[in-house]
From TrEMBL:
<dbReference type="Pfam" id="PF00128">
    <property type="entry name" value="Alpha-amylase"/>
</dbReference>
<dbReference type="GO" id="GO:0005975">
    <property type="term" value="P:carbohydrate metabolic process"/>
</dbReference>
<dbReference type="InterPro" id="IPR006047">
    <property type="entry name" value="GH13_cat_dom"/>
</dbReference>
<protein>
    <submittedName>
        <fullName>Alpha-amylase</fullName>
    </submittedName>
</protein>
<dbReference type="InterPro" id="IPR055218">
    <property type="entry name" value="Amylosucrase_C"/>
</dbReference>
<dbReference type="InterPro" id="IPR045857">
    <property type="entry name" value="O16G_dom_2"/>
</dbReference>
<feature type="domain" description="Glycosyl hydrolase family 13 catalytic">
    <location>
        <begin position="5"/>
        <end position="429"/>
    </location>
</feature>
<dbReference type="InterPro" id="IPR017853">
    <property type="entry name" value="GH"/>
</dbReference>
<dbReference type="Pfam" id="PF22582">
    <property type="entry name" value="Amylosucrase_C-like"/>
</dbReference>
<dbReference type="InterPro" id="IPR013780">
    <property type="entry name" value="Glyco_hydro_b"/>
</dbReference>
<dbReference type="GO" id="GO:0047669">
    <property type="term" value="F:amylosucrase activity"/>
</dbReference>
<dbReference type="InterPro" id="IPR044077">
    <property type="entry name" value="Amylosucrase"/>
</dbReference>
Length: 541
């Protein structure tokens, strides 16, 4: 299966208009469509729709709940499952719960983390990182009507709900079932890592998060067993496996989880032209439970934070702080020789962290006119498509859309440069493909579909590199192994003969599925062109 993610209005217009594009998606090979937040948000600013004012109604400019039901039906008729965001950590301060709390309702006040003075907020903030230090510093906001300090992890208009209150769990269980009745098949559990608060910690990835997810999943399995949960847990490598379940929670929490680590390592490899850090870091993650899968991606709606674990970098002789600084410099275009055209998002002066905004095409060099841009774009897609899991394409990446240079023209977006990589869909360009990106991506998708080794259920092995420029990913299937070999450099590289021997691929039947040819062997090794991928398998004599 292939996924696709988009803002409904920027992709097509209304929900009804999205339905008219179902054939386009299906022709691309899409079987899963994630539409970004479309439930009623507060008036702008609303964090791109993640400040929800009402979970039970659709944003008026997009349509109605009936339109949502109709869209789900249309998509299903094309073999496409609909995924929607469910914001679990917070609601807009205009949400009925918050309005009631401000009006003095003690029951609804207990839905939130409220403190009468700064004693507890100061104690918590001693260990809390800031999510948006540039425009939303701190994690608590004073509200006059509430007469208290309310927890606001993200923005002052997004009030964190208190998941230690059983009534909150019941509210969200009901919301899930109502949306499932409209035809929503997958719920992206937004900001799930932040749900549980514990003094003296960073209040992320707490064990209770997984207990809560399991409780919600149990309700869904009873009343709507076809519904899946996708964890939006953009966390460090050590914390990520728990969102698919470990120990007693294995296979009993979320069904899908973002492989943020893979995305980060793709960009790290392209900038450094070196796979050693990526190979080591990816080896540290265990295989997900057999009933679950990763969601893999090159770009999404959000910025890129350099989630490179210090211990992973040091294990391969890299200074983690220097490497993260290099990646920010490279992708903001300030490093000498960089072909990237990204923007710095949220520079944390205290830690030095700088996240990056930018489209796939602009970060890979297409906007700069670099000759290697298109091969790099297709290489990034090839890595994600061959790694396993559910690969998801961000809207417009199939066309190679560059940064939206007019992103700040909309006053509602002017303070958030992530809108630079959220352009409106360029339908006029959908059939032209001047760079060959659409054709190349469609080819990779078609080839992937033909190979049983690349099914999501087949385990993924990342091997130690023999050449620091070549990533080696092995997928073992009853039909025989497949080796995805990726050259992340602008020089010719080789797949060592020993690697082919170890996999039993040193045969006359050796084929490269990407090129559709039998690769020429030189001393038993396979040549890889610059920025090229080969999917090697035994195709028979």
């Amino acid at each position: 299966m292939l996924g696709y993610a988009a803002y409904a209005d920027r992709f097509a217009g209304t929900l009804a208009d999205v339905g008219t594009r179902a054939s386009y998606l299906r022709e691309l090979g899409v079987g899963y469509l994630h539409l970004m937040p479309l439930l009623t948000p507060r008036p702008a600013p609303n964090d791109g729709g993640y400040a929800v004012m009402d979970y039970r109604f659709v944003r008026p400019d997009l349509g109605t709940t009936d339109d949502l039901r109709d869209l789900a039906t249309v998509l299903r008729s094309h073999g496409i499952s609909l995924c929607l965001d469910l914001v679990l950590n917070h609601v807009a301060r205009e949400h009925e719960w918050a309005v009631a709390a401000r009006a003095g309702d003690p029951e609804k006040r207990a839905y939130f983390h409220v403190h009468d003075d700064r004693t507890m907020p100061d104690a918590y903030e001693a260990t809390l990182p800031e999510v948006f230090p540039d425009f939303a510093p701190g994690s608590f906001t004073w509200d006059d009507e509430l007469a208290g300090w309310v927890w606001t992890t993200f923005n002052d208009y997004q009030w964190d709900v208190d998941w230690s209150n059983p009534a909150v769990l019941c509210e969200y269980a009901a919301i899930i079932l109502e949306l499932a009745n409209l035809g929503v098949e997958v719920f992206r559990l937004d900001a799930i890592a932040f749900l549980w608060k514990r003094l003296g910690t960073d209040c992320q990835n707490q064990p209770e998060v997984h207990e809560l997810t399991r409780a919600l999943r149990t309700v869904a399995r009873i009343a709507a067993p076809a519904v899946l949960f996708k964890a939006e847990a953009i966390v460090g490598p050590a914390d990520l496996p728990a969102y698919l379940g470990v120990g007693p929670h294995a296979g009993r929490v979320s069904d899908l989880a973002y492989h943020n680590g893979l995305m980060v390592q793709v960009w790290s490899m392209l900038a450094s032209r070196d796979v050693r850090l990526a190979s080591y870091a990816l080896q540290q993650l265990p295989q997900p439970p057999s009933t679950t899968s990763w969601v893999t991606y090159v770009r999404c709606h959000d910025d890129i934070g350099w989630a490179v674990a210090d211990e992973d970098a040091r294990a391969v002789g890299i200074d983690p702080v220097a490497h993260r600084r290099f990646l920010s410099d490279w992708y903001s275009g300030s490093f000498p020789g960089s072909w990237a055209r990204g923007l710095v998002f949220q520079h944390n002066e205290l830690t030095g962290d700088r996240r990056i905004s930018g489209s796939l095409a602009s970060l890979a060099g297409l906007e700069a006119g670099d000759a290697g841009a298109v091969p790099r774009i297709l290489l990034a897609h090839a890595i994600v498509l061959s790694f396993g899991g559910l690969p998801v394409i961000w809207m417009g990446d199939e066309l190679g859309l560059p940064n939206d240079l007019g992103w700040a023209d909309d006053p509602a977006h002017a303070g958030d440069n992530r809108w630079v990589h959220r352009p409106r869909m360029a339908w006029a360009e959908a059939g032209s493909d001047p760079h060959g990106i659409t054709t190349g991506l469609r080819h990779l998708v078609d080839v992937r579909r033909s190979l049983p080794q690349l099914h999501a259920a087949v385990p993924t092995e990342v091997w130690d590199p023999r050449d620091p420029r070549v990533l080696l990913v092995v997928r073992r299937h009853d039909d025989g192994p497949l080796l995805a070999a990726v050259n992340v450099s602008d020089e010719e590289a080789w797949v060592d003969a020993d690697v082919l021997h170890w996999l039993g691929l040193h045969t006359p039947g050796l084929r490269d599925a990407v090129s559709g040819t039998a690769p020429a062997l030189v001393a038993g090794a396979v040549r890889l062109a610059p920025w090229a991928a080969a999917w090697l398998y035994d195709g028979g004599a």
